[in-house]
Amino acid sequence: MEDRSMTTKKLYTVIIFSENTVGLLNQITIIFTRRQLNIETLSVSPSALPGIHKFTITTFADEDMIDKVVKQIDKRVDILKAYYNTDEDLVFQEIALYKLSTELFIKMGTVEELIRKYNARILEMNETCVVLEKSGHYEETQALFRELSETIGVLQFIRSGRVAITKSRVERLSDMLAEMERKLERRRNGNPING
User: Is the pLDDT of residue 1 over 80?
Assistant: First the structure.
């Protein structure tokens, strides 16, 4: 769970591009552990580039520390590129699921109001339980959790790691790969690489 009370540290989102290599996640988490940085959220999925996976990790750190961590990650052989971003650089979301008692949920009387207020949706409803889904920022999913906990109680709760994309037009890795391709093409044509 994210601790919002930290004063000297800021929440950073580290985005790492790699091939899907066995053991890579362990290698990455060891780098955070050695620097005594707690991973707040973690999400791994295929990226927009075929064959390349994207790790999205959030952690609280100061800029000097996160810069060192990302440089260390970037040196790994299996890593194509690693970056860090602040919230201002990204569009991001989390998804949360809430399992509730159907009986208590119906007795609330303000179900429609609650759904509209939090822009949540019902994924499943049967005689014993209701499962709500809410996507948004941490504060938004946490606010719904608090309200449900205080009113009817939550039977189960899960929140995903952050999923994020940069506000730039393309993935930063796309720019790096395009530059590598231009250098290879210059080399094939007999032109100097730095030219």
Answer: no
Contact residues for 180 (Cβ-Cβ < 8 A; gap 6+): none
Q: Give residues with Cβ within 8 angstroms of 79, minimum separation 6.
A: 16, 17, 18, 24, 73
For 14, half-sphere exposure in the C-beta direction (CA atoms, 13 angstrom radius) is 33
Q: Does domain 93-159 have CATH number 3.30.70.1150?
A: yes
Residue 186: both structure tokens together: 């210059």
C-beta separation of 164 from 90 below 8 A: yes
Q: Closest by alpha carbon to 49, among 186, 171, 143, 158?
A: 171
Q: Give dist(CA 78, CA 12) in Å, integer.
A: 22
Fold designation for 10-85? Alpha-Beta Plaits (3.30.70)
* pTM to 2 decimal places: 0.77
Residue 183: pLDDT band by 50, 70, 90 thresholds? low
